[in-house]
Amino acid sequence: MLDDRLVAGSVRDPPARTSGRPMKSSMHDEDIDDDVMAIKSIRMSAEKRKTIADDYRLQMKHLNVQSGVYLSFSKLSYTVKLPIGPIGCRVTVDTPLLKDVSGYVKPGMMMLLLGPPGAGKTTLLELLAGRKPRSVNSIVQGEVKVDGKPWSDDFNRIAGYVTQEDIHFPTMTVRETFMFSSKLRNHALVSEMQKEERVDLVLDLLGLSHVADTVVGNELLRGVSGGEKKRVSIGVELVNAPGILFLDEPTTGLDAAAAIEVVQHLRHIADAGVPVICSLLQPSQDIFDLFDSILVLNEREMTYFGPMSEVLDYYEETAGYRCPTGKNVAEFLLEIHTEKAQQYKISEASAPVGMFPMLFQSSVQYDELGSRLWKGIAPADPSTVTHLHSESPFATPVPFQAIQCTLRAVKNMVRNPAALRTRGIRSLIMGLLLGSLFWMMPSDQKGANNRISLLFFCITFTSMGSVASIPQVCEERRVFYHQRASHFYQTISYFISAVLVDIPLSIVESFIFTGLVFWMTGMNSSGYGWHFLMYFGVLFITNMVAKQFCRMCAAATPSIQIASRIAPGLLSIWLVFAGFLIPRNTIPAGWIWMNYISPFRYTLESMAINELVGQSFKCDKNEYVPDAETSAECFNNGKACPISTGEDMLDQFGLYTSYSYMWMDFGILWAFYAIFCTGTFLALAYLNFNVPAAQPPAPDTVDDDSELRTIQRGVNQGYGAVASEEKGENGAYLSFHNLCYTVDLKRSLRERLCGGDNGPSTKQLLFNVNGYGKPGLMVALMGASGAGKTTLLDVLAGRKTGGHIDGQILINGQPKDKFSKRMIGYVEQMSVHMPTLTVSEAIRFSAHMRLPPEISALEKERRVDDVLDKLGLRHVANTIIGEPDAGGISPELRKKTSIGVEMVAEPSILFLDEPTSGLDSQAAEAVMDAARVAANTGVPIICTIHQPSEALFLLFDWVLLLKPGGHVIYFGPLGERGATILEYFRRHGLECSPEKNPADFVLECSGAGIGGVDDDDVSDRAKLKRLMEKFDPQESWLAAPESRMVVDALEQGVTPADHRPMVYSSEYATSLAAQTKLCIRRAFTDKFRRPEVIRAYIMMYIVMALIIGTLYWQLDDSQLGARNRVALIYFSCIFAALGAFAAVPSVVIARAVFYREKPSFLRPFAYFVAQSIADVPFTIIGSCIFSTMIYFMAGLNLSDYGLRYLLFMLTYSLTSVTTVAFAQMVAVIAPTLEVASSIVGVSMSILSLFAGFIIPKLSIPWYWRWLHYASFFKWPLEALSLNEMIGEDFGCPDNRGTIPIPTSNFTSIPYCPISSGTQFIEYQYDMYTTWSAFWVDIGVLFGIYCFFLVITFLGVRYVNHMNR
């Protein structure tokens, strides 16, 4: 029977395994007590005779509440609507990503998914694990059953799924990451002690104990290594003791020894009764033999499912393909699905690859599978069926989830000190600034006006500061989507934690700000301080409302760029309708509803009532109206005080004067907060913007006539890949002698590592490393994870931004200089690209940037095409690279694109950091063959590699082997089939068996691997482990003659005297003009490839112009019309600043690409020009649309034959590009996106305050007046006001706006205070009133713009926030 054969063994008969008996499904309290006692005894015996994996297996049997499940799937298909075709002319078609796939696993089984990229492995895993989101654009057909019953939502409770991408919070430590998973995904009957014990076991199991207290990290935060991060992803699932485990390429990034140990531990888990389904890209034969069954996929269809022991017989007897003796079976199975299948055909009658699915469907194996699925895959004993203690898809209740999410959020917040400091300093600085600016406001007319202005600015500052909360939501959203899909917690739990963790911070920053402002400015302090409490409460809830609104925008929009445009735009609309810029009693009837839906209306009214009701105001002698001369001439020396009570001020702005309205407004603000909280929750619950777009299947990776297929593999494989005698002109000699690298330890890290502050302040990562590379020489840099391989590459390639480098690095016998970068190509482990470019555009950009101008453009294009063909990228040449988590190309295609970007530049020295990680065996072979081609042209290659097959290993000429800690233990040739290096270790008692992959053996000799061995284990690997305990590889190497030979060669010099290296006259291959042109073209391509961002940007201007234009519709020449003209100009300037918020994310996101390109070929000035120019056209277009619409809708000054309109539009456009330049300057200098957004928000608030509208120039204390001149809003406000007011006359039609002036005969005469525009801006805002002042304002504004550009360039040139 098929069932019996599935567990009978694999192709090469691995060691006998324990049977996979199902575990009991239920657990009671007394069972737990018994289990605790059993565990103690098990632990005592395990310490003596069991490995960590056995300990894990035994404990999970006693602690697990569910048994391993029976999973079956029949005729499973998945179809999506996918855009196909070149950019600009794409059509949507139904694309099958999976077709009629069937199979099953049972407790104790371990199934391998094998297939080339695009075969559908990830799609199948996501469907089976319940992680594939369903939508109207996707169709799922077929049947999935668990324990014989249809699949249900609670299956995620017991299904562990390890994705290709490592998705974690970078600031959490490894232990904290495991504990979070353990606490939330293990049921409540598992005690806290048992959960912690599970974590400790998994840490030991995966070899992560030494980094348990190290943060996970990311590309900008140094944390665990790439291989360790992959093990963290596996451990997150293992601590849950899953009933079934799905793994998508779990060994990517691990060295060969660690990879086999991980899969061996998975074998132990399967033997404990947990079925495992795992996809792998490059499984070695040892790993392959650990599986029971295999499902082979090709072009989204299955070509085989069945026992490992029958797979070779099936393809030989049914399809006509035979696996050669000694061939890695996994490689054979992959290669027969490609053009390389010809070499395995038994005869010409062998079936073509396209018929494989049809052959399987007509085979006996398929009939047996169908019969078994028809009978049902379920346990014979119903008592062993998986039983969950609740029908909820989540293991823990919502309150517990919320508590754990809150604790995690607090840790993440505390470990982001830059953001915390920014928020605290922002409130402190603004509080001190406003307090000193409005110091002890008097009870005169100036004090009355300043009070309402101060209250409005407090609202402006609070609202603009809230925009800084957008980046956090967008950054955390990816982790949230992943963990919710894995049923860590429900959406409401995550949402509650996000709300709760922000409340204390909001209270603190609101208290700091309000405490300073209230008491320093002399606000209304009557009533035993309750006025202060009300002021604090209103601003606190306003802060919460604004932040929650920004979070809602971030959660409901697909990208941070769109959220950064929508949120500030809507906030600015609400500010306009708050009732200050245009009083409520003057808002047109058609727009009064906007006043009611603006939260800031209720903030302003409640704070104004709190501050002004009951207040009395007087007039100084110069504040009475009219002035003395006018009073004597026209009003019989009569004068009046415009505002005598606080109620007068409230009436002037159309605000209510009763305390009951204050409390009602306070309640309405809480209602707004509840509404935005609900909106945020719904957006998180029902929207998912991180769903990767499906990729169409890839055809065969390389054409038959590719140059790679003409390589003499006999020379390369059998004889250590002897380098070509004919060295290319570009080949360089690299040598490094006694190379050391040391990093400084931060105090917090020092305390964690050393248990106090008395430990060493530095840590050495590399110790006296010696080696060299010659033209045509391929050097494999190998070692266990954490041995310092990437560190050494970074040091040699000049990519380190910190630390201390000692020793000697020579290129062509000379120390590295500024020209060295032209000779170096570096393929980094992280594939960082501009996401909006296509694959061919990314490679083409590198070619035109890095190849010298002597090479024609046509020849450069030919080389680009050649690289596309060599790397098998032709079929995706016109595909957008995209983001890894939002519709981008697959990881292997990203890796190949990274290699292509460097290969096309034809460097003299090529460094590759894990170029085969994430690739299948065929793609890895193609990549390394391409590297071999480059080496054969005379280029030295230094390449780190984790899991090379024997064929790939023998492509190298020499090996530099590192042990953990950064010590060299071997540097020398491989020899014929690795004979030289194997002989070296044989001399020290370490023997490599003939059937073992020499690459795996060498890695194990370096200390690779993450586990121990049983005392009774007699395998070759166990013997080697025991021998390694007595072998000191470092001392042995230092005493070896080979080491002395290396040192002698370095001291004599490896560069021949007759070598004529390339001589460069410039450190860059192309001119500044050419680089600038290319960067500008790329920057504009990036902008145009984001149409949704452009639409949001333009629509923001149009909508805002429509609102403001109709709000200030056809302003008349009344007293109110004069004030509204200046208010309209002021708001227009502030709106330009709000648009600048959108420039921050794009600059910060593009920084990662710049940091990669800058050390290699990119001039900072070229990048700076491109980034500065790219936003200008869109900014000018939006500014022209906005200014044109409001100018004519508001009926502004059209005198001088329309010249006033042109001056307004040009001035406003200059204002807009200046604000964008300021935002870009901050984004370049600030360390993170959140900090940059905070700084921009605070700065815009301060600069708008000192513009001269909210508080006029003469009202600003002398010690703050310099900020008035430093504000770039001051100059356009004055210039645009002059442009509008010069020559404009105002009156008081129907006595509107007049002030009654009492006379001596007890009557009053109406007085119209404003008669001309220049009079108004001079006396009300202390502005100049001549055209010469207008041109001075324009000149100063342009100078400020240029100043921002200079600082931005200096930031691009000298600031680097990527610490390496």
What does this structure look like?
The protein has 1364 residues and is of the alpha/beta class. It is built from 51 helices and 22 strands. It has a six-stranded mixed beta sheet, sandwiched between helices. α5 (174-185) packs across α6 (192-205), α46 (1203-1229) packs parallel to α51 and α49 runs antiparallel to α50. The longest helix has 31 residues, at 491-521. The chain starts with a helix and ends in a 6-residue tail after the last helix.
Topology:
Blueprint: H1 2-6, H2 29-49, H3 52-63, E1 71-84, E2 91-105, E3 110-114, H4 121-129, E4 138-146, E5 149-150, E6 159-162, H5 174-185, H6 192-205, H7 226-238, E7 244-248, H8 256-271, E8 276-279, H9 285-288, E9 293-298, E10 301-307, H10 308-319, H11 329-335, H12 356-361, H13 364-375, H14 398-414, H15 417-437, H16 445-465, H17 470-485, H18 491-521, H19 530-556, H20 560-576, H21 592-596, H22 599-612, H23 628-634, H24 646-652, H25 659-686, H26 713-718, E11 734-744, H27 747-754, E12 762-773, E13 778-783, H28 789-797, E14 804-811, E15 814-815, H29 820-823, E16 824-827, H30 839-850, H31 857-870, H32 891-903, E17 909-913, H33 921-936, E18 941-944, H34 950-953, E19 958-963, E20 967-973, H35 979-987, H36 998-1005, H37 1020-1029, H38 1033-1039, H39 1041-1052, H40 1072-1088, H41 1091-1111, H42 1119-1140, H43 1143-1157, H44 1164-1174, H45 1176-1193, H46 1203-1229, H47 1233-1249, H48 1265-1270, H49 1274-1285, E21 1299-1302, E22 1308-1311, H50 1317-1325, H51 1331-1358
Parallel strand pairs: 3-8, 3-9, 6-7, 7-8, 13-18, 13-19, 16-17, 17-18
Antiparallel strand pairs: 1-2, 1-4, 4-5, 9-10, 11-12, 11-14, 14-15, 19-20, 21-22
Helix pairs in contact: 2-3, 3-6, 3-8, 5-6, 5-7, 14-18, 15-18, 15-47, 16-19, 16-22, 16-47, 17-19, 18-19, 18-25, 19-20, 19-22, 19-25, 20-41, 20-42, 22-24, 22-25, 30-31, 30-32, 32-33, 40-44, 41-45, 42-46, 42-49, 43-46, 44-51, 45-46, 46-47, 46-49, 46-51, 49-50, 49-51
